[in-house]
Each structure stands twice: as C-alpha cells, then as structure tokens.
Amino acid sequence: xxxxxxxxxxxxxxxxxxxxxxxxETCKKCNESKVAVKLKxxxxxxxxxxxxxxxxxxxxxxxxxxxxxxxxxxxxxxxGKPKSSVLLDMLRFAFFQxxxxxxxxxxxxxxxxxxxxxxxxxxxRCDQLQRVKVLLEQYGFKAYGxxxxxxxxxxxxFEDYMKQAIPNDEVIEFKTKFHSTGSHTSxxxxxxxxxxxxxxxxxxxxxxxxxxxxEIESDLAKIFLTNVTLGRGGSVCQDIAFCDTRGxxxxxxxIRNLDxxxxxxxxxxxxxxxxxxxxxxxxxxxxxxxxxxxxxxIDELQTNYPSTISTIFRTGDKISGIWDDKGEVVVDxxxxxxxSGIGAKKSETIQALEYSRFVSENTCDVRLNFVSDDRGDxxxxxxxxxxxxxxxxxxxxx
Length: 398
What we know:
alpha/beta, seven-stranded mixed beta sheet, 398 residues, 16 helices
C-alpha cells in the first residue's frame, strides 16, 4: 500500500511538471496576453509576465541578502554560454532602467580564454575571440580578457588581449601541469580551481568588491554531490552558497535560484545569442571524470524528476563544516590552493586515508616512521592534496 502511494505521488509530480500548455489560454497574471510558458507547479504565463518573474527572482536574490551595496564595483564572469549570457542580459536590463529599480553598480566583464585546454589552433582561437567580442559589444560593459595559462593573470582590455598570442612556453608549462594530474577527476578539479583563482586575482587587480558567476541550481546540485565525494564536504557550504567568502574578493552567484527551463525560455524570449561551444565541451574531455558522471546523473534527474534537483540543492545549503562542542567550525588553517578551511587535524577518517596511502607508497621500514596524526601536506585541504599528489612538478605554483 505504501509503495503504491509513493508511486502515485511520483507520477503526480511528473505529470504536473510536464503538463502540456494550452497556448489559447489567457495569462492569469495579467489577463491580457496569451500564455507562452508553463513552469513546474506554476500557472501558465505570457512572455511578459515570465520575464518579469525571472528578473524578480534575480533581483530578489540580490536584495534579500543586502550583501552588494550601492556603488559597488563588480566583475562579471562571462564564458559565452547561455547561463552567463542570461546573467549579463539581466544586469544590462537592471542597469539601464530609468526607474527606482535601477542597479547602481560599476560593472566590468572578464572572459577567461581556455583555448589551451582544448588544444585550439591559433586560427580557431582568433575566431572564437572575435565571436566573443561581437557578443560582448551588445551589452555595453567594459570587458577584460586573460588566459587560463597565465599564472600572473596580466590584466588587459579584451581588445588588447585579442591582439596578443599566448606565449608558447606558457602553454607548455600549463599543459605539463595539467596532464600530470593522475586522473580525469583530478584534472577537472584542477581546472575548476584554477579558474576560481583567476577570478579572485583579476577582481583584486580591478579593486572589485565582488565577482558575479552564473551557476544555476542544477550546476550547484552537481557541485554539491561531486565535492562531497571528492572529500570537500567541509567547504561545500561555500561551494554552493549565494556568497563565497573565501579569498580577498567574495564570489556572488546571483542566478543560483534559476533552473534550466527558466534559462532556456529567457534565452528564447529575448533572442539572446550565445557562443557556439560544441567544440569546447569540458565533459567530453573528461568523459571518465567523477564530475562528468555526476553531471549525467543530474541531467537525467532534470529530465525525469526535476523537483529532485531543487531538493539536492537546498540540502546542500544546510550543510556546513566540522563543528566542535562549542558550536565553532574546526579548521587548521586555509588551503593555499582553493582557500578552503583545512579539516580538523584529529579527523579519524582523514588519518585512515592518509595512512592507507602512506602504506601503499612506501616500504615496510619507512612505514614504521608514520606519525599517527600525519595528514601529509598540511598547506592544502584533502581535496587539493588529491589533485597535487600525482603532479610531476613538485614546486607547483599557486
């Protein structure tokens, strides 16, 4: 009986989420236009009401936290994909309104050129940068460009960056480090943290108060599940939070409450052009990575059980670090690579993992010298130590 009830509940949820739209109906919000979209568990809406609803979600996330103050300088991260295009379009709409709702920020845009990761030729890279330039011009924000291979993160206007080739020795050094990671999972994790570090460094150089990124709830559900599996459970609250306070410049995720359907319809109704990134699919490069497997799982849930995504995402919001008896988070310092707190030194789980690794990598005589509370490199968190343990270059720059 209980099983049947559960099946009926699931069936009702799916039916509610895929209910067909009657385009002849009138929008019940404005009672004027014909409906154009039906979101899960919501009344069908016309195009105008839908756009107002989605933009309100964006504005509400900024307004409810009151983190970003009037006159703040913000760095917007743009990669040409639909989500970052939606974020830029929403900000443009908010900046150029002639009403009291106008946002009073000083915006800059950053494009991180990761063509070296995907082995693009010079011609392919130039074509892509030219396309990005055309897309950015329609928003009217001052844009900067930098390469993911540039360890110094030299700050240049986007047009100046387009005119310069990436130094070959810089690319070789980056690829040597990148390909030295022991698995697709570590390589994917390495690239993600490199991008985050670039964002923070460039934001600091621009004296920006905040950096805006474009993750939505399905992205954060994937990050949550992946990072817990990778041993980053202590920092997962920052990984998916509205405001990530690690580092000198906080990273804000202002559209984290949007879902895939809302992004797709926003792109459709506003006729927003996006960068064609079919040849630059990070998942295709790291097909066997844990991140890609998790993404496939989330995508399947999005198709068949979309409400589950929100449940995973909201569960992640409730998880924090390791707490002591006094209710304080226990850390042994900050990781020099990702900026997360390093887990409690007396963690029995970490000790057991480090001992197992130590035993497998050393002879019997050396094993006798293992200290009971040894966790290896205490300058990095457990997740980052897994990235760097297989690097061929011991003096990895950070």
